[in-house]
Amino acid sequence: MSKADEGRRCSRCRERKPRVAFAGNRSMRDGLQAYCRECAAAYHQARQLARGKNVRPKVEAPEGYKHCRTCGEAKPHSEWHRNRRTSDGFATLCKPCKAAKGRVRHLKRQYGITEAERDALVKEQWGLCVICLDAAPAHVDHDHETGKVRGVLCFSCNAALGQFKDRPDALRRAAEYLEGNVWKPILEAPGVYRLPS
C-alpha cells in the first residue's frame, strides 16, 4: 500500500487518518488541509468564541436523521432538501420550516403584508371567500395596477379574476351570459356594429 493510500497525519491532533477525513485545499502540495475536519471545526469554533461571536453547539441526531434548529426536531433525511454545499449534504432547514419561511417572505415581498395581516383579512371575511362564499380563502388578491391588496380569495375565484384581467365590464357580460341573456352586436350601418351596454 502506498503512502497516499494510507492517508495522512493531522497537524493538530497528530493522528493518522484516511484522506476523506481532510477537506480539500488546492494550495497544499497534496491538495488537502493540514487539519482534519474535526480539528478544523474545533479550531474555527475556538476562534469564533475568542472573538466574542455566538457559536451554536452541535446537536447530535440519530443515524439517518438531522436536527432542525427552527422547529427543534430531529427528522429523517427524507424531510430535508439536498444541498451539496453543506458539510452533511442537506439544507439548513427541514422542508416544512423552509416552506413556512418561504410563505412569510412571499407575502412581504409580493404584497407588503405579514401573515398576521393576512389572517386579519380572512377573519374580517368570516373565513370565507368573498366571491363564492363557499371555499376557504387561501390566495391573496391584489389590484395589478396599484398593487393594493383587496382581500383573500379561494383559488378558483382568484384565478377567474386573473383570467378576466380584472375587467369589471367583462365580468358583467359573463354574468349576463350565465343568466341566459345572450348579447349580440347590433348592426347600425353596413360593417358598423354597436355592442349592447
Describe this entry's structure for a reader:
Strands 1-2 form a two-stranded antiparallel sheet. It has a two-stranded antiparallel sheet with strand order 3-4. It has helices at residues 3-6, 37-50, 95-111, 115-124, 155-163, 168-178; strands at 8-9, 16-17, 65-67, 74-76, 80-82, 90-94, 139-142, 149-153, 186-189, 192-194. Helices cover 33% and strands 17% of the residues. A hairpin with a 7-residue loop joins β5 and β6. The chain has 197 residues and is α+β, with helices and mostly antiparallel strands. The radius of gyration is 31 Å and the shape is elongated.
Explain briefly what this protein structure is:
The protein is α+β, with helices and mostly antiparallel strands.
Amount of beta strand: 15-25%
What distance separates the N and C termini? 92 Å
What is the molecular shape?
elongated
User: What is the overall pLDDT average?
Assistant: 89
Instruction: Give the H and E element order.
Output: HEEHEEEEHHEEHHEE
Strand order across the biggest sheet? 1-2
Please outline the major beta sheet. 2 strands, antiparallel
Q: Helical proportion?
A: 25-40%
Rg to the nearest angstrom?
31 Å
Indicate the multimeric state: single chain
* Poorly predicted ranges: none
| Count of individual beta strands | 10
Q: In DSSP terms, counting alpha (H) and pi (I) runs of 4 or more, how many helices?
A: 6
Class from secondary-structure proportions:
alpha+beta
Give the topology, please.
Elements: H1 3-6, E1 8-9, E2 16-17, H2 37-50, E3 65-67, E4 74-76, E5 80-82, E6 90-94, H3 95-111, H4 115-124, E7 139-142, E8 149-153, H5 155-163, H6 168-178, E9 186-189, E10 192-194
Antiparallel strand pairs: 1-2, 3-4, 5-6, 7-8, 9-10
